[in-house]
Design brief:
About 55% of the residues lie in helices and about 0% in strands. It is mainly α and about 100 residues long. It has one domain: Four Helix Bundle (Hemerythrin (Met), subunit A) (Up-down Bundle), CATH 1.20.120.330. The radius of gyration is 14 Å and the shape is elongated.
Length: about 100
């Protein structure tokens, strides 16, 4: 659940940044959202690429049959959660530094 919540927190922060700049955010991919920010607030590519990790936690953790066998929670570790939270924190702090 922590992995999904980390994705959601980062997604909402980037969507808020879009709103701050009078832009419309489309989709749920944190990677795509960051990539499509206005040029004056867009982070560099290595930062944007980190968001791909969060995007892996958007759909599978929510569905009990998302994996070939067993419940979804069995496919995520404490290390996955720590990494997701760390990346989400970076995204949220970045968005905050741009005026939120």
């Amino acid at each position: 659940m922590a992995c999904f919540a980390a994705h959601q927190g980062a997604e909402k922060a980037v969507e808020s940044l879009f709103m701050k700049w009078g832009e419309i955010a489309w989709g749920h991919s944190v990677y795509e959202l960051l990539k499509n920010l206005p040029e004056n607030v867009k982070p560099d590519n290595p930062f944007i690429d980190k968001a791909k990790t969060l995007d892996r936690y958007y759909i599978p953790p929510r569905y009990p049959n998302a994996h070939p066998s067993g419940p979804s929670y069995q496919y995520y570790s404490e290390e996955d959660a720590k990494e997701a939270i760390s990346i989400a924190r970076e995204v949220i702090e970045y968005c905050g530094s741009k005026g939120l």
